[in-house]
């Protein structure tokens, strides 16, 4: 049962990596961008509404996006796990996802952040514009999407960093090398987390204290002890994450 989320700026190869990572963990992907594009091409009522925003590189309003995701996350095929691609992107979307997951007694296991320099993102977008002909892959619309990413979605990244579940991955270079890096990073993170949780449960039950020296040995490189002996992994080059309680 793995519940993952992938976040990255436009042109970061998020969609491509989502498919490969999901295949590895044997979970379905849910891509809000893809769902919107399918609806636009079929001219459904949602598609007609969403097209107004997609074409300009703007966010589809939260109430539409949240309703769509809520509906999809209740589907039976997603109960064993999923990889969300492109959601949440705003603070209210985080709240909605927290509520949906809590109502199912679920939680996110890890959030993969793909990082790449803006110059590389632009080059990739121009290539994709030729290959796929996406309407929102023009230089002006791309820049607007990138601005939105830096101004709004970056906050989403910060929240998950605060909760200690962010796994930052270098998203530059060859796509298959990025996949290998991303899968290895997630596997390592999940293993560390499980081992730490087992450790806390066992020792805390026995002694009423956190793992202490054992927690230190298990702490991933760069992580700092959090309140109660918990650890938070180092997040990219932003330094150690603060522990920020989840829902
Ligand atoms: P990219 O990451 O390259 O922007 P996506 O396929 O993830 O591509 O998204 C394409 C478009 O779909 C976005 O620019 C936006 O208009 C819309 N969209 C996707 N996900 C969301 C979301 N969570 N909230 C609002 N709009 C979204």
Beta-strand content: 5-15%
**Hetero groups:** adenosine-5'-diphosphate
The sequence of SSEs as H and E is EHEHHHEHEHHEHHEE
> Could you name the CATH homologous superfamily of the largest domain?
P-loop containing nucleotide triphosphate hydrolases
Q: Which regions have little confidence, pLDDT < 50, spanning 5+ residues? A: 212-245
**What characteristic shape results from the CA principal axes?**
globular
Average predicted confidence as pLDDT: 84
What are the defining features of this structure?
binds adenosine-5'-diphosphate; two-stranded antiparallel ribbon; globular; single chain; 55% helix; Rossmann fold; 247 residues; 12% strand; alpha/beta
What are the SSEs and their pairings?
Layout: E1 2-7, H1 14-25, E2 29-31, H2 32-41, H3 45-54, H4 62-73, E3 81-85, H5 91-103, E4 110-115, H6 118-132, H7 139-162, E5 166-170, H8 175-207, H9 213-218, E6 224-225, E7 231-232
Parallel strand pairs: 1-3, 1-4, 2-3, 4-5
Antiparallel strand pairs: 6-7
The structure holds adenosine-5'-diphosphate.
